[in-house]
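User: structure tokens for this one?
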Amino acid sequence: MPGKRKRQPVSKAKAKATAKAKVKSKAKATAKAMAVEAASSPTSGSSDGSNVTSNDDGEDAVPENPASEAESAESGAASGRSGDESEPANDGTETVGPDPSSLPELEHVVPLVLPQMEMEIEEKGLEAFVSTGSTQLRQWIVESIRRLNTSHQSDMAFALSKAGSIRMATACSGTDAPVLVGKAFADAVRTCFSVRSEFEHVFSCESDPDKRGFLEAMFKHTGDVDMARLFVSTEHLAAAGPHGGQVEEHLSREECEIPADFTDLIFGFPCQDVSRLNRASENLMNQETVKNASLRTGKTFGEMMTFLDKRTSLGLPPVSCIIMENVMGLAEPPKRSGTSEHRLEHSNLDYVKQAMSARGYFMQAVVLDPLGLGWPVSRKRIYMICWPKSKLEQAGFAEDFVRSTVEEILNKLSRSSTKHLDDIILDESHPAVKDELNRSREVMLKRRAESPPKVKKHKWAEAHVKALQRQGVDWWVNNTPSEATYNRYPGLLSLTDRQLDLCKVMRVALPDPRCAIVEMSQGLRGPSSSNIPCHRASIVLPTGQQLILHRGRMVSGLEAMLLQGLHFGKTQGRLDEFSPEMLRNLAGNAMQAHSMACALLIHRAIEGQLTVAMMTKKESSCTPVDDDLFDFE
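Assistant:
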């Protein structure tokens, strides 16, 4: 462990040996390294990362915009997104990006995992998140900073005092949770260190028109820090690059250049093609989506790599902080398939790391779950945190040392005390809950009033019967709540026949006394009664169907945002302008605020050590003054 200023974590001799070893490793890898086309594939497509969802009364666990394996392959070929066709034609123009023949050797990436402690539930009724959520997030960051070692804190304070503003750019922006975290982080730094740390929202990028409208409503005229620019697709970012051609800008309704003066670049590229809930994720095309810059996942990632390449081609220094987020399926080991000449060996995460390494960044992947950070929601995600390799080399830091330090920080940030679930979800008297209950009740009454010929037969009914038979439960027993129960818990009226039947399969009472929130859209893939964890909520999905057991109703759109730790401060009231379905979709695709804050803290703690070590090395390398100059004999 390096000291605060004078001790260097790695000796000069060891640093030189490490550098030589890297050179040899790259030389050996040249002959067998695989090309990563993510650097150059500006084809069209959505930059929005949606999760896997299910239909209300349809089949369990189907991907959004579902297609069969054959249809996926056919559409990929038709749109020029197959592995071979994703390469741009050689038109004689100069290309940017790393030379495919000199890519770093592929390595198996094993993410570090945030430790999980035994949960201790905080006392109920301390503070409602809907009222003071932004303040609570800032306080959480303050407490997390103070959990770090004193050397980490002092180094971070020193680095932040030198860096000045945090200038953040985001892509696939959605709710722009990183911006909310960045603002809270800047405030927390001022509280902890009395360091002047300003925050600037340089630009966002979102392909979905409705979500662009959301971003404009929530991040303009805030009375705080406004979003400066909003671009409409990662394809435009890749095509123009910073200070390149003019591209469409949403806020001004005009064209302008893309800024390059950002310190932080944060994006979560689409997850549909690698999600474990997507049955097509085991297909060869999906398992090589990052490598081939194909499908939605690889295409968007490839566009962001091209954007970085064009920034580098301008001679600009590397981005100080790059953080990416995706689902656990990104690290899923590929299934061995094909002949002995063609067997898959590497996950999509391995190719992400190779792509970042080729562009001069060291990447550390970590698995973060808000459950381990004191927030009662389960949402494991991979965060890929990147630093410029040039900084590691200047500081004399070996990559293994950075990895071990990140692991140490994770242990410090993990906590057992967890916020009470009832302090996050809303009271039944809240207008958002009342409005959604009324809407759901009207829809359900209309559905039940339909004549029998309009009622469809569903495959889920047969699947539920078989599940109940395996449990030894009489499937024909009616599970419909009584009139008295409906009167006491009117939210149960919004449950569909499938959901009511699924409650019987899961052995969930209506209502159930357990304080828990269960996701029902995954059907029989969801939890059974024996493993429904109390005092926590299951993952938030874009079109999720989360049942609050002890409240006897479904989670509202606003509550889905709150469960993600998202509070917009002064503009929170503007959420009333958006439909519950829109809010739920945004929340299901969002980065969880506490996990994002943890990733940013990890980056800044390491950045602090790098800054201090580089300064110490620079001071020690200064030529001493010749004493003879002052010898007057």
